[in-house]
């Protein structure tokens, strides 16, 4: 527990930035109209691909005994892959709505 408190005390500015960016991101996403969902989903898929590559690189350079870094890297890879696959599924389904029916 002391280690956690020390970590928070040493990184309080980064924690504030993370919290602020979370609130800003939520406000930005809430104000986007539904018409722009498909193009933005494609952009989000590209960003998630970058997250996946970054997480793999971090895991490659992490100390093999640092289980926290490896676990967080693995979690980032899994969640990034889920986001990419889900985004492509939603985009594909939305584009199917604009095709002519036979």
Span from first to last CA? 64 Å
* Computed Rg: 18 Å
Helix content: over 70%
Helix/strand order? HHHH
> Average pLDDT value?
84
In total, the number of domains comes to 2
Given helix and strand content, the structural type is: mainly alpha
Q: How many individual β-strands?
A: 0
Count helical runs: 4
What global shape is seen? Answer: flat
Proportion of beta-strand residues: under 5%
Unreliably modeled segments: none
Largest sheet: none
Notes on the protein architecture:
- By secondary structure, the chain is mostly helical.
- It is built from four helices and no strands.
- The chain has helices at 2-10, 12-30, 37-61, 67-96.
- The N and C termini lie far apart (64 Å).
- The model has no long low-confidence stretch (mean pLDDT 84).
Q: Could you list some keywords that capture this structure?
A:
102 residues; 2 domains; 4 helices; flat
Set down the secondary structure blueprint.
Layout: H1 2-10, H2 12-30, H3 37-61, H4 67-96
Helix pairs in contact: 3-4
Give a short synopsis of this structure:
With 102 residues, the chain is an all-alpha fold.
